[in-house]
Design a protein that fits this description.
- This protein is an alpha+beta fold.
- It has three helices and 19 strands.
- Strands 3-10-13-12-11-14 form a six-stranded antiparallel beta barrel. It has a four-stranded antiparallel sheet with strand order 7-6-4-9, with no helix packed on it. A two-stranded antiparallel ribbon has the order 2-18.
- Strand 11 and strand 12 form a beta hairpin.
- Helix 2 runs antiparallel to helix 3.
- The longest helix is centred in the N-terminal third of the chain and has 34 residues.
- The relative contact order is 0.18.
Length: about 375
C-alpha cells in the first residue's frame, strides 16, 4: 500500500473519530445536565387533617307521599248537574264537590214517601183494632211489616240520591277537575284528585344491615331538590316488617309537618338519618383523596430535610393509602392511615407522584365545609 493511501486512511480515521467522539461527549454532557437539573416544584394547595365529632348517619333517597290521596269518583252513573269547587281549592270533610242529575230519583222518592205514610196510617188503624181485640195479632204484624218495608224502600231511594252527590271524604286540596257540567260520567270514572297535605309522608328504603339501627321516633332530615336550599325534619312513624328478598332492602316511612304545604306528593327527597353515638373523626377535603380501583390514597406533605437556595425547607409529598369513611358536604372522614395535624395536598394531585417536590400556594382553596352552598349565579 502506498504512503499516500496510508495517509488518507489516517486522516479519515482522525476525522470520523473526532466526529464520533464529539457526539458521544455531547450526549454525555446533556445527560449529566438533565440528571443534575433541579426538578421544578409542583404548586399545590394543602391543609391539615382536623378532628371533629360526628354522629354516624345513613343517607337514602325517597318520595313524598300524601297521608290521604285519591282520585274521587261517583258510585253511580249520570249527568253532571253542578260543580261546586274550583280546581286547586281547599275542601273540608263532607264538603259537596259536585252533583249528578237526580230529578227522576227525587220524584220516585216522593212516591215511596207517600206509600210510607199510607202504610203508617194503615198500621195505626189496625193497631187500634188489635188493642180492642177486633183483629188478630197476625193482621197487626202484617201491617207493621208493610210499614217497615215502605220505610226501607224510602231509605234505599234516599241512599241512591245521595250517591249522586260527590263529597270530600277527608280534608285536603283538590286537583284539576276532569269533567264539565252536562257531561255524562260512568260509575268509577276519575273526576278530581284530592290530597291531604298536612301532615305528609316521605317513604324511603334502607339496606337490611341497617334494620337493627332504625326505630320508630328517630329524627329524619329531608332535602328536596325541587325546593333548593333548606331542610325539613320529621319522625320515623312506621318500619316495614318484611325485607324485600329481591333487593334486601326494607321500607321506612317518616311523617313531616307540612303547614305551609311546600312538600307535595311525588317530590324527590334526599334523606339523612342519624344512627349510633357521637365519635371523633379525622377530616380532610374530598379533593385530597385520590380515588383508585386498587385503593384510596392521599399525598402527605413533609419536609425533606434539605433547603433551597433561599434557605427554605424543601417540601416533598409521600403517597399514603388510607381507609375512607363517611362523606358529608365537601369533607370526608379518614378511618385509618392519617393522623390529626398531618398536612395533605388538596389540589394538583394529577401532577404528583410519591417523592415529588412541591410548593404550597393556598391563595385558592377547595371547599371544605359540611354544608357547602355553591354560588349558582
Amino acid at each position: 500500500m502506498s504512503k499516500r493511501m496510508i495517509g488518507l486512511l489516517i486522516v479519515a480515521i482522525v476525522v470520523f473519530g473526532g466526529v464520533l467522539g464529539g457526539k458521544l461527549f455531547l450526549n454525555q454532557m446533556i445527560n449529566d445536565f438533565l440528571d443534575n437539573m433541579p426538578v421544578p416544584a409542583v404548586a399545590v394547595s394543602a391543609t391539615e387533617a382536623r378532628q371533629d365529632r360526628w354522629i354516624d348517619s345513613v343517607t337514602a333517597v325517597g318520595s313524598v307521599v300524601a297521608v290521604q290521596g285519591a282520585e274521587l269518583s261517583t258510585q253511580v252513573s249520570g249527568i253532571v248537574e253542578s260543580i261546586r269547587f274550583d280546581s286547586g281549592s281547599e275542601v273540608k270533610t263532607g264538603d259537596i264537590i259536585l252533583t249528578l242529575d237526580s230529578a227522576t230519583d227525587r220524584a220516585e222518592l216522593k212516591t215511596l214517601q207517600s206509600a210510607e205514610r199510607l202504610a203508617e196510617l194503615e198500621r195505626d188503624r189496625i193497631k187500634q183494632l188489635w188493642q180492642r181485640k177486633s183483629v188478630s195479632q197476625s193482621e197487626y204484624d202484617q201491617r207493621q211489616s208493610q210499614l217497615e218495608q215502605a220505610r226501607a224502600r224510602v231509605a234505599a231511594q234516599q241512599a241512591r240520591i245521595e250517591q249522586k252527590t260527590l263529597r270530600a271524604p277527608y280534608a285536603g286540596r283538590l286537583g284539576i277537575r276532569q269533567v264539565n257540567i252536562g257531561a255524562y260520567v260512568s260509575a268509577g270514572d276519575p273526576l278530581i284528585g284530592l290530597q291531604a297535605l298536612d301532615p305528609i309522608f316521605v317513604d324511603f328504603t334502607l339496606p337490611e344491615q341497617r334494620y337493627s339501627e332504625v326505630h320508630v321516633g328517630m329524627t329524619v332530615t329531608a332535602r328536596m331538590d325541587a325546593l333548593g336550599e333548606g331542610s325539613f325534619e320529621g319522625k320515623v312513624t312506621a318500619i316495614e316488617p318484611v325485607i324485600d328478598a329481591g333487593t334486601r332492602n326494607f321500607q321506612v316511612q317518616a311523617t313531616f309537618t307540612n303547614t305551609e304545604q311546600r312538600l307535595r306528593p311525588g317530590m324527590f327527597a334526599r334523606i339523612s338519618l342519624d344512627v349510633g353515638e357521637q365519635r371523633d373523626v379525622v377530616l380532610v377535603p374530598r379533593t385530597a383523596i385520590s380515588f383508585k380501583p386498587y385503593g384510596n390514597s392521599v399525598y402527605v406533605v413533609t419536609e425533606s430535610g434539605e433547603k433551597d437556595e433561599d434557605g427554605e425547607p424543601i417540601l416533598k409529598v409521600k403517597q399514603r393509602f388510607v381507609t375512607t369513611g363517611q362523606a358529608r358536604g365537601s369533607l370526608i372522614s379518614i378511618e385509618e392511615g392519617l393522623e390529626i395535624g398531618e398536612r395533605v395536598a388538596t389540589s394538583g394531585l394529577l401532577k404528583l407522584n410519591s417523592g415529588a417536590v412541591v410548593s404550597i400556594n393556598n391563595s385558592v382553596q377547595p371547599d371544605a365545609e359540611l354544608a357547602p352552598t355553591p354560588d349558582n349565579g
